[in-house]
């Protein structure tokens, strides 16, 4: 038989859906309420299906209906088919709701998410997390990710909700050994005696300006372009130079003494790390769980900044 004939043998799905609802309620009115249809619309769909089948599916009695013999034979199989579809969509929904996809900038991924994300999964073992680290700006409105961690200087595009995690304000950090190589760093100008990582970075000039040290220039200093704070922090811990970092993201390294922060002075970066997600999904359970956990887990960083 030609495939087109097979497709023609199946009545319209809308009529089958109405039939399935009526067989459960044995009422055109209640079936219509469930489906958001008028009683007349339900009757019309059943009439179409009966014409297609060639026999009555229901016996119309005063104030009630009953399945005809043909309807009684058809109803269990139709109900079973719809139940299979309901279970399939429920399972799919469960898989979707149980997987949280996060895209994050590399520095936040390595300096905070890697150390702390496991705590979220301990609290919510029913949710699997997929973490993607990228410097690309992912389109959260149209891509597959649920949540993004972004560095922003202004509110995100329309349709997105953002929550401040921590400001990206910065200060010099270096290894204790490097500081001791010049007898300690006692004032901001002492940093000029040391090798600097990424000296062409605008953060150097900005910080020295706030610190009241005029005339900083990267001229004559060896150029490097590590760019990412995570890489700069690793190089600084190895004693390769002093670097500008966001200290809130290097608390463990500072607490353990692998890095030292010689001055409390922070220069404003003009941007911050934000938790971002589509406004249309703000009430999705997995997003609410992660948002609430994340804001609580990072509250100390906002209090210190």
UniProtKB/TrEMBL annotation:
The keyword Cytoplasm does not apply. InterPro entries: LysR-type_TF_proteobact-type, LysR_HTH_N, LysR_subst-bd, WH-like_DNA-bd_sf, WH_DNA-bd_sf. One of its GO terms (molecular function) is DNA-binding transcription factor activity. Keywords: DNA-binding, Transcription, Transcription regulation. CDD domains: PBP2_GcdR_TrpI_HvrB_AmpR_like. The keyword Ubl conjugation does not apply. PROSITE patterns: HTH_LYSR. GO terms for biological process: DNA-templated transcription. PANTHER family: GLYCINE CLEAVAGE SYSTEM TRANSCRIPTIONAL ACTIVATOR (PTHR30537:SF26), HTH-TYPE TRANSCRIPTIONAL REGULATOR (PTHR30537). This is LysR family transcriptional regulator.
